[in-house]
Amino acid sequence: PDVIIEAQFDDNDAEHGQDHLQDMLTDDVKKLSLDIGEKGKAAGVTGVHRTKQDDGLKVNDPRLLPDEFLQRTAKVVYILEKKHSRAATGFIKLLADRNSELFKRCAMFSPVDHRVPRVYVPLADCPPDFVSKPEAYSQMLFICRIVDWKEDSNFASGQLCKSLGQAGEIEPESEGILMEYGVDFSDFSPEVLECLPQNLPWVISPGELAKRRDLR
User: Fold this and answer.
1) Of 71, 24, 30, 63, nearest to 45 (Cα)?
2) 70-106: per-residue pLDDT in tens?
3) What is the CATH number for 119?
């Protein structure tokens, strides 16, 4: 297993120089290697031998080591369910390389959430005057939805859905959060509203109130 050693040194260590620190770390590594070797012998580990040139363990077959010495690995083979909405809130800006062909077709979308990759979005999705006045949209929040992310690209591809408004204001920020998490905040349909009592003012009937626990 990998060994990470933390060393603390004060002004006295600094006076001795790097040689003193190097010797101290070397002694710690040797001590740890000896401890691991003794534990391996106590556990009856086979397929392990020591050499004069190396104080560490030599393993002929990793399958012979106990489980606590192994790092389990795995590989993703299939995405069963996409939990993320693929929508993100962020800002748009022009590409840095103005001479590239991509500059004429795409803009860069930078999500507020840094866990989401930056996205190429078509200029056709951007406001008409974005190329001529990009500074006017530097603090404007947009919603972008990722549609593709090629394996050989550092950036995803997406489409701008809508402009939310000025960053820092409550309504645009709230709407962006709801859209990112896939929360439906649209108005109720007439069918839903018809389920509500139509004779107003409405009161709870005495019979219904009698069989309920009043938490008011």
Assistant:
1) 63
2) 888 899 898 898 888 899 999 999 998 888 888 989 9
3) 2.40.50.700
